[in-house]
Amino acid sequence: MSREKSFHVLRTTVALIIAMLAAFAVIFMVSDTPIESIRLFILGPFSKPRYIGNIINTAIPLIFSGLSMAVVFQASQFNMGAEGIFYFSGAVISLIAIWVPLPVGVHQVVIILAAAVIGALIMLIPGYLKAKYGASELVTSLMMNSILLGLGSYLMTRVLQDPMASNGSYPYLDTAKIPVIIPAFKVHYGLFIALLCVAAVSVFLYKTKWGYEIRMVGINAKFASYSGINIVKTIIIAHLVSGAIAGIGGSVESIAMHTRFEWNGLPGYGFTGALIAMLANNNPVSVIYAALFVAYLSTGADIVARLSDVPAEMSTILQSLIILLIASERFLHSFKQRWMERGIAK
Amino acid sequence: MRELLNIIFTAQFLHSVFRVTTPILFASLGAVIANRAGVANIALEGIMLISAFFGVFGSAATGSALGGFLIALLSGLICSGILALFTLYYRANVILGGIAINSLASGGTVFLLYLFTGDKGSSTSVASKTLPEIAIPVLKDIPFLGDILSGQNVMTYLAFIMILVVAVFLGKTTLGYHIRAVGENLKAAESVGINVKLTQTIALLLSGLLCACGGAFMSMGYLSSFTRDMVSGRGWIAVAAEAIGRSNPIGTAAASIAFGFFNAIATAASTVGWASSLVQTIPYVSTLIGLFAFSYKEYLKLKKR
Fold first, then answer.
1. What is the CATH number for A303?
2. Crossing angle between the packed helical segments B44-62 and B65-84, to the nearest 10 degrees
3. CA A44, CA A142: separation in Å to the nearest integer?
4. Is the dihedral of CA B41, B245, B286, B212 positive or negative?
5. Cα B300 to the chain's mean position, in Å?
6. Which residues 6+ apart lie within 8 Å of A207 measured at CB?
């Protein structure tokens, strides 16, 4: 491992430790039984097979959103649209999952492919506006999120809503569901789809021409342009791939974890995806570990919230802090200088 | 449609345009100052949310609206100070720093709300104060015009006064001149002895103060309590308004008012029975279209060259 890379690992670790210490400090301030709360937060997620399964199941959508963000981040595009796409693709594929009878296997594949297309098409809007006209993809994608939420809830109230269910669509057909692998852990087959996507994105980014172009544009757009890369095309491709992954994520989450469409608002995966992509340094394989780690944190926070007295939003606070630290170039900078110099001196 | 048009031409509707423009205007002016100094403040949304929260709890703790307002300002200042610390001194990517502050605000306010009230939705159980509405003498007696312009919240007047204040500040004061110099050419500003980092920090802090005004208005004027994620995208709309207004206070204000108008339309349309889930998207759709139109125009200009 190069010194540059091992420094990244070290820095990430230190940031995580600091964030954890901050979390402990918060727990000490707000909890009546701080020691017990911290114990639950750290060890709770491993205390039952169900919780371990919960970590993995929580990590699955995070792998998708982390991958989705990693692709746009690689092209230096700050697009937060994964959030809206997760929600909206979940709503639209519910139409297929509820009303289109198809044989098992085919049904899931149709749903996932449809979701990928929906996600890619949605991402085309901010992608095209940015690539061609320079409209800030950050702002347009956030506006799109709110618009998609409105469209999705319109679809829900007008079409999907089951009058017999208090708050949910008509139930999905059994042929559409993604089954559980091991009952004790409740982990579902979506895990394999997620890992497949990781492999596909790795190959795409590191072994194909388009992937190479995306990374070059991300490193230095001007230079990439001078060396003959079509920037408009490349930025659009990055957006399309990112949207497709987010769409797949939304559909997998819907048909694996839910028996009907029941999201009332944006599920929050977009932001967490940004965090995961950063933790993973935008590397697809590292996204898996980052997603597992964040899933562990949020499972821990959920357990503390349920069994003790610390609100689950603690994990959001923790995540924001981690982002701030990792995004800071100067964090541990002087240490880096010495570390690199020693590497060169050798 | 007829019903909607009938509503739009009432004094009450035009009155509401000013009201809903207020938070967007504050935040977009905040964006102007930061951007002129060359730092894109995209934490507007989060800073507004945090100050909305502290306005409510500050006013409940001090028992006065003014106390709440000052505490809201302080919280906005601290928030933008943290942003400045990380982006300017620790060199965090401005956008990622902003994203972190926004999510910290979203999660942190719900966290604190739950600790203080046991509720994760709103602060209605807290006895908080609101900022006063002001009837303007003479003006209030003029028919129609009086109904529109008088009786607005004090923050609405402040927001519109701020357009001029920011314009004069940037155009005529030494600090404003420094801010523009730093934003236009960092190296050149440095070479004539301007402290770049300090200037940018001040710009971010001022930007935070303006956002705090918007936030305080949200929870102590627009509504009379804090509700979860109550800023709901206004900070982002402000970012778009600032871009469309090309960082010019007057232009930005015009764009903010346009977005405020669409916000007010959304509210009016839902009262005449249009599907609320679709109507709620009007402000965002208008922002998206506005941003597109602006970028397209810029693109054509660039192409001509």
1. 1.10.3470
2. 150
3. 35
4. positive
5. 30
6. none
Q: What are phi and psi of B170, to 5 degrees?
A: -75, -35
Handedness of CA A217, A223, A225, A227 (dihedral sign): negative
Q: Which of A151, A144, A160 is nearest to A97 (CA)?
A: A160
Helix count and strand count (H, E) for chain B:
14, 2
DSSP conformation class of A180: E
Beta strand B133-134 with A187-188 is unpaired
Residue A261 identity (one-letter amino acid) = F
Say yes or no: A20 and A93 in one domain: no
Which residues, in sequence order, are CB contacts of A196 under 8 Å at separation 6+? none
Structural domain contains residue B139: no
* Chain B, window 89-108: residues with a beta carbon less than 8 angstroms from a chain A beta carbon: 89-93, 95-97, 99-101, 103-104, 106-108
Start-to-end C-alpha separation, chain A: 15
Provide the number of structural domains found in chain A: 2
The 10s digit of each residue's pLDDT in B93-128 is 888 888 889 989 999 999 999 888 888 888 888 888
| CATH code, B222 | 1.10.3470
pLDDT, tens digit, 9 for 90 and up, residues B224-266: 999 998 998 899 889 889 888 888 999 999 999 998 998 888 8
Q: Flag if A313 and B233 touch (Cβ within 8 Å).
A: no
Separation between Cα atoms, residue A175 and residue A45, nearest integer Å: 32
How large is the ipTM? 0.86
Chain A residues inside the 8 Å CB shell of B101 = 320, 324
Distance from C-alpha of B47 to C-alpha of B232, rounded to nearest angstrom? 12
pTM for the predicted model, two decimal places: 0.88
| Within-domain flag for B173 | yes
Q: Do the chains contact at B90 and A330, CB–CB below 8 Å? A: yes
Helix or strand holding residue B4 (H, E):
helix B2-8
- How many inter-chain contacts (A to B, CB under 8 Å) are there? 143
Do A23 and A167 sit in the same domain of this protein?
no
* CB–CB contact B90 A331 (8 Å): yes
Burial of B187 (0-12, 13-18, 19+ CB in 10 A): exposed
Range of the domain at A111: 54-309
For A72-114, the pLDDT digits (tens) are 999 988 888 999 999 999 999 999 998 988 888 899 999 999 9
Determine the longest span between alpha carbons in chain A, in angstroms: 73
* Residue A22: alpha-carbon gap to chain centroid: 24
B273 touches chain A (CB under 8 A): no
- Nearest-CA neighbor of A234 among A245, A226, A224? A224
